[in-house]
Amino acid sequence: MKLRNMIFAALFAAVVGALGILPPITLPISPVPITAQTLGVMLAGAILGARNGALSLGIFVALVAIGIPLLAGGRGGVGVLFGPSGGYILSWPFAAYVIGFLVEKYWHKMNIARFILFNIIGGILLVYVCGISYLSFISGIPWTTAAIQALIYVPGDVTKAIIAGITAMQIKRAYPLINKSTKLHKTA
C-alpha cells in the first residue's frame, strides 16, 4: 500500500472522529443517537474508493474498540460496540467499501445523482440493515419495531447523502483521489 493511501485513510478516520465532536441527539423512541458521523462514512467511500474507504473506517472502529472516545458524546470502548449502536458502527467499514466499490465501478459515469444514490445504498440501506438487525438482537425487540424506530433517522441521513454526494463530485472534479484506472479485480 502506498504511503499516500495510508495518509488519506488515516485522514478520513480523523474526519469521522472530528464529526463526533458535534453532540449526539438522543431521542426517547430509540436508544441509538443521531450523529453526524455517517456523513464521514459516506465521504470516505465516495472520495477514497472501496479499499481505502473501508480501511479508514476499519481504523476508526479499531480505535473506538480500544477505548479512544471518538464517537459522538465522547463514547468509546468495546462496550459501545456491544450496545444498541454497535451494529451501526460495525457496519461502517462495509458501508464505505460498498460506496467506494460502486463509485469505482461507475467512475467514468459519475455525477451528483449517482454519488447520492451510492451513498444511500451503502451509507443508509446497508448501515440500517446491519444496525436494525443488531439492535433487534441485542435489545430483544422485534426487527420491525427497531426498523420503525429507525425511520426517524431517514431525513437526516438523506441530507448527509446529498451533502456527501455534492462534496465528492466537487473533489472528483478538482482533485480526484480515486485513480481513474482503478480496477477492483486488479491485484496489488
TrEMBL record:
Bilayer-crossing regions: 30-48, 55-73, 85-103, 115-138, 150-171
Name this protein carries in UniProt: Biotin transporter
Membrane topology type: Multi-pass membrane protein
Organism (species): Halalkalibacter okhensis
The keyword Membrane is annotated on this UniProt entry: yes
Protein family membership: Belongs to the BioY family.
GO CC, any one term: plasma membrane
Subcellular location(s) of the protein: Cell membrane
Domain of life of the organism encoding this protein: Bacteria
GO MF: biotin transmembrane transporter activity
Keyword tags: Cell membrane, Membrane, Transmembrane, Transmembrane helix, Transport
Broad class of the protein's primary localization: membrane
